[in-house]
Amino acid sequence: MTFSESINTCLREKYAKFEGRASRSEYWWFTLMLWIGYAFFGFMAVYSMGIDQFGNFGEPGAIGWIFIVCGVIFVLGTFIPTIAVSVRRFHDRNLSGWWYLGVIVLSNVPFVGFAVSIGALVIMALKGTEGPNNFGADPLATSNAEIFS
């Protein structure tokens, strides 16, 4: 799956779809887009504030507020698709999506959260189960029916 296909899938086709499975490429391309967006809006908001000679940030001007508002809209607009693609990625590993809720809760516990976050990162990076599992067909499998039709 390419970058644009992944973004299209996560933001249009499966915006709030928690069923099914997501391939590694779908998850990681979408995550890359998120981090690029966060970095862009964050950098532009901070850059527009300026820094005085003492290292203090100034007040954001009109352009700064535009970037802040656009950044907040970006975060709120991608909140549900981020959870959805993460749940589908857990499904690809044949794990219930409720485990993702456990990751979110436990990641807020000091010291435990670091280990849980590393574990979630590993789960997201591992290859999904081959063939169909409890949550649907393999997203990377090619169907022979499509070849011969």
Key descriptive features of the protein:
149 residues, mainly alpha, 6 helices, 0% strand
Low-confidence stretches: none
Q: What's the multimeric state? A: single chain
Number of domains: 1
| 3D shape | elongated
Amino- and carboxy-terminal Cα gap: 22 Å
Major sheet summary line: none
The run of helices and strands is HHHHHH
Question: What is the radius of gyration computed over CA atoms, rounded to a whole number of angstroms?
Answer: 19 Å
Strand-residue proportion: under 5%
- The number of E-state strands comes to 0
**Overall mean confidence score, pLDDT:** 88
By DSSP (H or I, 4+ residues per run), the number of helices equals: 6
* Overall SS class: mainly alpha
* Share of helix, binned: 55-70%
Tell me what you see in this structure.
Helix content is 64%, strand content 0%. With 149 residues, the protein is an all-alpha fold. The chain has one domain. It is elongated. The mean pLDDT is 88.
Quick structural overview:
With 149 residues, the protein is an all-alpha fold. 64% of the residues lie in helices and 0% in strands.
Write the layout of secondary structure elements.
Elements: H1 3-13, H2 24-49, H3 62-92, H4 98-106, H5 112-125, H6 144-148
Helix pairs in contact: 1-2, 2-3, 4-5
